[in-house]
Amino acid sequence: MNSAIRFLACLCLLVLPAIASAATVVPPGNRSKEQPPIPNASANRTRAANSTYEAKYRKVYALLENDAALRNKIKTVSAQYGLDPMHMVGAIVGEHTYNVDAYDRLQTYYVKAVSYFQTSFKFAYDGESISDFIKRPEFARCENLKGSYEQWTCRETVWDRSFRGKKVDGKSYPRDRFSAVFFQPFYAGQTFGIGQLNPLTALQMSDIVAQVSKLPKLDHNNAQQVYKTIMDPDLTLAYVAATLKKSIEAYRDIAGFDISKNPGITATLYNLGNPDQRARALRAENLKRQAEGLSPRYPQENYYGWLVNERLNELKKLF
What we know:
It is a single chain. 61% of the residues lie in helices and 4% in strands. With 319 residues, it is mainly alpha-helical. It has a domain at 20-107 and 235-316. Strands 1-6 form a two-stranded parallel sheet. The model is unreliable at 1-20 (pLDDT under 50).
């Protein structure tokens, strides 16, 4: 290695960690003056229900406003994970405004949780269980990783690179998300509970929740347990909090941004998923901008997070 290359290598080692160690605080509020475009899928769901976004927002707001027990659960869980409750409220409100309507009463979520626990189904695709699928050699490197988040994120990456939309060993796999293909046995795009979590996200957060909330770890071989967990408000709120906390940590440690003061950004990441991947993309973009003498690009809210920031003062009145 010549001296010029050694100098550049040393410079990278110095510059890259500096981004994470001196996290830039993202201030409250939206960076976009107008709401970013809402996907057609959300518009179609709302139209099919003969509803409006405003009506759905008011319905979930009423659920929170009328249920002191639910608000107390959110406050308690938020404190356990070191979060401002507005992050959890933002995720819940965003999901029920743009995904599915909230139920009128929290009790309905408990009833649904029990019904899934009593139903027979498993995580599989075309007769191949998820347990057998992840034993394939392509997933070998994931087995050595510690932690449910690291392992399942690795498996999701392997799916995208090696199986998604491809034919492997004579078998064709859909050009769709890992979670939709293997973890939603009733229909693709399916999410559940007050936090509208998908099962793969819950499995990723299992170790964090077990450590912080002392709940039993989830088992991908027990689909009923996973579904009951994401439907039961007494269990799923911890997974909502863990997901939000993970996003905050990813953007702090990887991209160098402190998003803990902006519930619209955490709500955006809750909606989009893959916070590590998105943080790395933002970091790479800002290193390029830095080299070109440009100011860094801040994390940007999407349509979902934009609503949360726009209604934040009203949401704060709940607490």
